[in-house]
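INTERNAL AUDIT FORM
Audit reference: QA-55
Scope: verify that the stored structure record matches its stored sequence.
Auditor: D.O.
Record contents follow.
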Amino acid sequence: MTNRHATHKAVVDARKAQEQALLLEQLRKLPVVSVACEKTGVSRASYYRWRREDSTFAASADEALQDGTSLVSDMAESQLLSQIRDGNLGAVMYWLKHRNPNYNNKLEVTARLKHEDDNLTPEQEAAITEALRLASLTEDDPSTSSISLPPSSHGTTPTDAADSETVAPDVQG
């Protein structure tokens, strides 16, 4: 590399470092990438390229975004508290609903979770086999001969179960 090229590269690197510093400063004030890019004159493409190519910059940008998010959250809470002091009932309700569990909307969910090791009953296996047959996805269809069903805990394949069980009659379509 010639001395001229080295000087040019140093100038470009210095300008890039300055642009990155300004961009990080903007992200700390307002954590919106497009706004920060617009205010600093840096394209969004450059920002995302810098993130991809420079893990140190990416980490700094993540930290700046977190700082900016915290700042905006603090400002929003300050505004909310001002509204509460002014007697704004909506603000009071919002605060209570989100900060006090006694005022939350409550939803109780009761369920039995199935485990992956739950096995199908012979009737379920037969129904699945019949559904696959009706959809032409069983071994009767040569185009899908590579499809194989796992053996059940009952020692039979779903196809065997279908042969030994009575299944629903064909539906005419």
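Auditor finding: record pair retrieved intact. The radius of gyration is 32 Å.
Action required: none
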